[in-house]
Design a protein that fits this description.
Length: 118
């Protein structure tokens, strides 16, 4: 039991001492760039490396990219699909008034949003 308390104290001490110092964050806002007619902001799975990209495109183009990724059989590309869909779902609640982290990107409605300093 003594080892448990020693490990707990060590863990809590580490957490308490490693926490970043709170600082006032600079105010931010979403800068919204509308997409061209017939297009909307969609998260796309990357082809050659891990991750996703946000771009103005059509559902058909994204569906083709997803099909190509699935057909490739690449676990990395399939993970990129999952991430892209998760990001799209997460962004569905974003508005131009939503809080943001400087440098973040998001699909705001059918437009692309970039978080900039206010």
């Amino acid at each position: 039991m003594g080892r448990f308390f020693a490990a707990l104290a060590l863990t809590l001490g580490f957490v308490a001492l490693s926490a970043p110092v709170a600082a006032a964050a600079a105010p931010t806002r979403w800068e919204v760039s509308p997409c061209a007619s017939g297009q909307k902001a969609l998260w796309m799975p990357r082809v050659d490396k891990f991750g996703t990209d946000l771009s103005c495109t059509t559902e058909e183009v994204r569906a083709a990219a997803v099909k190509a990724a699935v057909d490739s059989g690449s676990p990395m590309r399939m993970m990129n699909i999952a991430i892209a869909f998760a990001q799209q779902i997460s962004d569905s609640s974003l508005t131009a008034e939503s809080p943001c982290v400087l440098g973040a990107k998001g699909a705001i409605g059918e437009a692309i949003g970039s978080c900039v300093a206010a």
